[in-house]
Automatic annotation (TrEMBL):
It comes from Stephanodiscus triporus. ATP binds at K16, F64, R92, T98, R109, N119. It catalyses: a 2'-deoxyribonucleoside 5'-diphosphate + ATP = a 2'-deoxyribonucleoside 5'-triphosphate + ADP. The chain holds residues 36 to 190 of 191 of the full protein. Its EC number is 2.7.4.6. One of its GO terms (molecular function) is nucleoside diphosphate kinase activity. The active site is at H122 (pros-phosphohistidine intermediate). This is Nucleoside diphosphate kinase.
Length: 155
């Protein structure tokens, strides 16, 4: 495998209901597009209790979880898979810190929000979790295989 394909990663990026309602979807997509990542899948849907309990399996016992789950079900979310070199780590950098007040300006959270409970977007924190989240939110036929269609001008 070439150096490029070895570094290829897929990450699950989700725009939360506040990001959708505030009209920040296009801006977020644009940032990942212009960075050089490829959109391998995208859809809108309502999150359910069942899928959120699985997605946030590490957080279900936390005191803030029921409120957070209500927030996540308060409107449609946009589910996306972005792929490219080190997409997981770089995706997290582009999102910014979990608490938007600690997020650097220039990041999505740093530019658009101030509340940890309304932080606009989610991004996988590891390659393993990205794979888990992708299989949770997407069916196999919904995900494109860009590698077999790749062009020299995308890396
Ligand atoms: P995410 O999973 O949404 O990308 O967020 P993250 O990895 O940066 O942060 P994590 O610790 O996994 O927390 C997941 C989400 O839970 C909400 N949260 N609320 N104290 C609170 O009210 C609180 N703490 C966390 C946030 O929406 C956070 O993104």
């Amino acid at each position: 495998a070439s150096e490029l394909s070895m570094a290829m990663e897929r990450t699950y990026i989700m725009i939360k209901p506040d990001g959708v309602q505030r009209g920040i979807v296009g801006n977020i997509i644009s940032r990942f597009e212009t960075k050089g990542y490829r959109l391998a899948a995208m859809k809108t849907r309502m999150a359910t209790k069942e899928i959120l309990d699985k997605h946030y399996c590490d957080l279900v016992e936390k005191g803030f979880f029921p409120k957070m789950r209500d927030y996540m079900m308060s409107g449609p979310v946009v589910c996306m898979i972005w792929e490219g070199k080190e997409a997981v780590t770089t995706g997290r950098k582009m999102l910014g810190a979990t608490n938007p007040l600690a997020s650097e300006p220039g990041t999505i959270r740093g530019d658009f929000c101030i509340e940890v409970g309304r932080n606009i977007c989610h991004g996988s924190d590891s390659v393993e979790n990205a794979e888990r989240e992708i299989s949770l939110w997407f069916e196999e036929g919904e995900v494109l295989d860009w590698q077999s269609h790749s062009k020299d001008w995308i890396y």
